[in-house]
Fold this sequence. Notes:
Layout: E1 4-5, E2 11-12, E3 24-25, E4 31-34, E5 42-48, E6 55-59, E7 74-78, E8 83-86, H1 90-93, E9 100-105, E10 110-116
Parallel strand pairs: 1-4, 2-10
Antiparallel strand pairs: 3-10, 4-9, 5-8, 5-10, 6-7, 6-9
Amino acid sequence: MAIVNLDSAKIKAKYNEVNVGTLTASTTDGLEYTVEKQDERTLLIVENTDASNPYDLTIKAPVNKCYAGAVADKVVEIGAGKIAVVPVETAKYMDAVTKKVTFDSENAAIKAVVVEF
């Protein structure tokens, strides 16, 4: 399998409007998106579609760090049947060369969409 790129399904959100998008299923290889806006204007919305089991989502430390790049991955558990909103600090988790933020997901029950304001 390959890492699922979320760029083509990004929601280009506008304030005071209903912004509709589609969640994209992950693979166990993970998810990624390309940073195009400031981090305070970008969110990753994640749903665990399995109503019985929680699964981990890992924000990967970048290979090519920015000035404040993370030195370790950050693991977050998404509860069974829950939705998570993940604002990601680009200076910490964006790869300086590829401009991508990468996530490992434990199961294909994890679905996500990127929202840019």
